[in-house]
Amino acid sequence: MPFIQIPYGSKKIKFRISDKNLVVSTDRKFPKEIKNIETRVLEALENPVAGPPFTSYLQRNKKVVILTDNYARLTPTYKILPAILKLIKDKGASAEILIANGALREMTDAEIYRKFGDYVLKSGVPIHQSNSRNRWDFEYIGKTNLGTPVNIHRKFLEADVKIAVTMTQATLWGYGGGGSMILPGICSYETIEWNHRLFMGKYCGPGFEPPQNIMRMDIEEAMIMAGLNMSLLVILNPRMQIINIEAGETLSTHRKSVKVYDSFYSFDYRQIPEGQVDIAISGSFPGDRYFAHSCWAIANLDLFVKDGGTIILCTPAPGGLAHFSYAKDYLPFTNDKRKKLYEDFFYGKQQFWHGCLWTPILEVMAKKEVNIVTERDKLPIFKELHIPAFSSMAEAFRFAMERHSRSAKVGFFPYGKWIIPKKLHAR
């Protein structure tokens, strides 16, 4: 009877499952962190996937803006930026950092310190934050083919050279990284809402790229309009260590980075007997402070779990629900509640930008049961949402097995938030 090690924030839950029940595990060994990250960053910038090398943009007195992601992304920026800042200084150019907050709040001083570290903060390089609701900070540059009016942060538009530094990962609306540093990253609230209305599209979900994914297509068109010169994209292992670095013209670089990401985090569902399991077990990452972030695993596991099946998600959620609290009025997610949600989007009672963080989860919960393993003090908040929650994995598993037969097929997907099915388009 094998043990599984379920990631639980910064800890792990050791749990035993019968051989006859555990039919698949996507647990695997990941590469260790790249050595000499500063050297690898410079190599990627000088040997881009596509487009000219970064140094070809750098001339004396040129102003460079570096886009970095926000507190909700786990990119270890403090490991990446020192090499870039030194290079910019050596070439006689100047740098500014613009944090791409999208519609999220601005980062706190503590969050900025964790994101950037001593070297960057002591370098004297100005750090600005995009606040999408400060309408005076943005300039209208046109609209996309899908009708999204594009308002871009003036700090970005005023720069001579523009580079984005972020990570590639599966998200609830496709893949993150690249163009999303522009939209939603440094766009006005109005632009973000216009674009995020598209998340309701059929293929605007984990693992889908343009042209099927119209939300991502809209994002990338806005990125091209804004004039982002290049992106540097990293991939992390589950320990939040950098295992791949790509740089260059954003579209080509993002496509290549996605392929590398998939080589680590995609799984062929055809390896599962009958293609799907009755019960799926997933954990959460150290950086998943809020349930609004750890809950992504529920959407990613949809295609691996039979309708009527159970998803068990283990997450301490130390910061609580965050944006998922807005889902309370729509649970359980019946057709009447779905109708109400669509009406609330239309009449502005709910915002598209945060609805895209929990609506896909509600759609899965309408077909499958979700059980949460969390801290005892978090049980009341899930009770209020009508989501079964337990303070022990043993309780949750027993509860799930009682819904199914003793021969229930169980799958272990430790990093469910980032896993996607292979051959997705063929399903």
Question: What's the structural blueprint in terms of helices and strands?
Answer:
Blueprint: E1 3-8, E2 11-16, E3 22-25, H1 37-46, E4 63-68, H2 77-90, E5 94-99, H3 109-122, E6 127-129, E7 138-143, E8 149-153, H4 154-157, E9 161-167, E10 169-171, E11 174-176, H5 189-196, H6 214-226, E12 230-236, E13 242-248, H7 250-265, E14 266-267, E15 277-282, H8 291-294, H9 296-300, E16 305-314, H10 335-346, H11 352-355, H12 359-365, E17 369-373, H13 379-384, E18 389-390, H14 393-403, E19 410-413, E20 420-421
Helix pairs in contact: 1-2, 2-3
TL;DR of this structure?
With 427 residues, the protein is α/β, with parallel strands linked by helices. It contains 14 helices and 20 strands. The chain has two domains: 183 residues, LarA, C-terminal domain (2-enoyl-CoA Hydratase, Chain A, domain 1, Alpha-Beta Complex), CATH 3.90.226.30; 227 residues, Rossmann fold, CATH 3.40.50.11440.
What does this structure look like?
This protein has 427 residues and is of the alpha/beta class. It folds into two domains: 3-27 and 269-426, 2-enoyl-CoA Hydratase, Chain A, domain 1 (Alpha-Beta Complex), CATH 3.90.226.30; 37-263, Rossmann fold (3-Layer(aba) Sandwich). Helices cover 30% and strands 23% of the residues. It has 14 helices and 20 strands. The protein has helices at residues 37-46, 77-90, 109-122, 154-157, 189-196, 214-226, 250-265, 291-294, 296-300, 335-346, 352-355, 359-365, 379-384, 393-403; strands spanning 3-8, 11-16, 22-25, 63-68, 94-99, 127-129, 138-143, 149-153, 161-167, 169-171, 174-176, 230-236, 242-248, 266-267, 277-282, 305-314, 369-373, 389-390, 410-413, 420-421. The strands form six sheets. Strands 3-19-15-16-17-18 form a six-stranded parallel sheet. A six-stranded mixed sheet has the order 6-5-4-9-12-13, sandwiched between helices. A two-stranded antiparallel sheet has the order 1-2. A hairpin with a 2-residue loop joins strand 1 (3-8) and strand 2. Helix 1 packs across helix 2 and helix 2 (77-90) packs parallel to helix 3. The radius of gyration is 22 Å and the shape is globular. The relative contact order is 0.15. The mean pLDDT is 95.
